[in-house]
Amino acid sequence: MTGRLTAATQLPDGVAGPGYDPQAHGSGIVHLGLGAFHKAHQAVYTDDALAASGGDWRITGVSLRSATAAQELAPQDCRYAVLERSVDGTRARVIGALAAALALSRDRAAVLAALRAPATRIVSLTVTEKAYGIDRAGGGIDRAHPAIAADLADPRHPQGVAGLLVRALADRRAAGVPPFTVLCCDNLPENGRMLRALLVDFARATLPKLADHIACDVAFPSTMVDRITPARGAGTLALAQRMLGVHDAAAVETEAFRQWVVEDRFPTGRPAWQAGGAIFVDDVRPYEALKLRMLNGAHSLLAYAGFLAGHALVRDVMGDAALAALVARHMAAAAATLDPVPGVDPDTYADDLLKRFANPHLAHETWQIAMDGTEKLPQRIWAPACDALRAGQPLDSFAFATAAWMRYALGRADDGTSYELRDPREQALRQRLAGAASAGDIADRLLALPDLIPAPLAGDPGWRAAVVSRLSVMLTDGMAAAIAGEPR
């Protein structure tokens, strides 16, 4: 094997490097959740901003659980390649925006020091929906969530998002340092407002005098992020080595498309992310609903139905004409529940999504998308379904997606093969479904699961009938037959 990618690597022709001297810029952002999506999205926008306008805006990346990302990046001077895959080919680009890569499990003191540092003006997050510990019913903390429970018991040594941020904000206030802006970049509705409510509630339980400071003095702009980024595989690393001529243990592959819509509320400043195409708005909610319902909702439908129909990858789903038609139908149903979005034509947006899903060069696994369904489906499927119910619009696609999730929740494929659900409520799902056999019994048990499916939907007889009829076909005839039998 050849050498390892570092800051000193001479990149081959056709591979772009940072358009600035990374060492001339300090860190001004701490990012929690140092995964592939951050490396393909926010870090790329920051790389563009540094090239265009400079500033001390490099990123200290933090993994809250595994130390793998930090171990991959540290020997490479935190450099890594983003491989942009499109029908026109692959473009490689080496990113220099990361200044440091830390893991909370081994670098706790350094993580807390970075969060306390006056130079840190933004803390951004991509930790996935399940990591926050949100009480879905009340909007505050879920005291049964493992990280929340641990941090309530020992707030001086935080493990989770709420405990870590509240501790850092308390330390900054005690030192007379202004609070950082908290920038949630996960797929949650009104994610900034959600995170504010979470931290305020956690502070009330641990540091009551800090709660009003967080509620009134800390900025929590909401965001909408979009870039399809599959989990990295061996093929990613092999492609990176062919294109770079050296080994890159931290390479990521993604699509060429990217989008970032951000509420422009940054009291202590921000990078010039608009240089990379970021859109700054007063209210992100219309864009957020568009993406959650049309892209993410369709992704969930195709993940459950596609996985059970034997399609391992999204591109395979889009090659199945019957299932691809249901994906398009779902986008139209979701679009009907939306308010107008400035500058966006829903039909054009849907057409572009279908092309992105069909990208032949992205190996995006349906099983990856299917994980954490109890965290994702409330905003992706059931919120628009509630709106459709109120408006008297067809519920077919939402009912099909729900039935597909219920079928998936049984944990066995049509051929009897078992699989892990990879859901934070997996144990509760399995316990509730134990002994259930008929479609009606399965549906009733899951419709009654606390704090999941909204009551107006779960209690509607027409909705139940629509779900049960589809689930019955899936159970008796298989997923492929259920797909074929759906109206287009």
The domain count comes to 2
CATH architecture of the largest domain: 3-Layer(aba) Sandwich
Q: Give me the CATH superfamily of the largest domain.
A: NAD(P)-binding Rossmann-like Domain
Shape summary: globular
Secondary structure category: alpha/beta
Q: Indicate the radius of gyration in whole angstroms.
A: 23 Å
**Weakly predicted, low-confidence segments:** none
**CATH-defined fold name of the largest domain:** Rossmann fold
InterPro entries: 6-PGluconate_DH-like_C_sf, 6PGD_dom2, Mannitol_DH, Mannitol_DH/Oxidoreductase, Mannitol_DH_C, Mannitol_DH_CS, Mannitol_DH_N, NAD(P)-bd_dom_sf
GO biological process, one term: mannitol metabolic process
Domain Mannitol dehydrogenase N-terminal: 28-274
Protein name: Mannitol dehydrogenase family protein
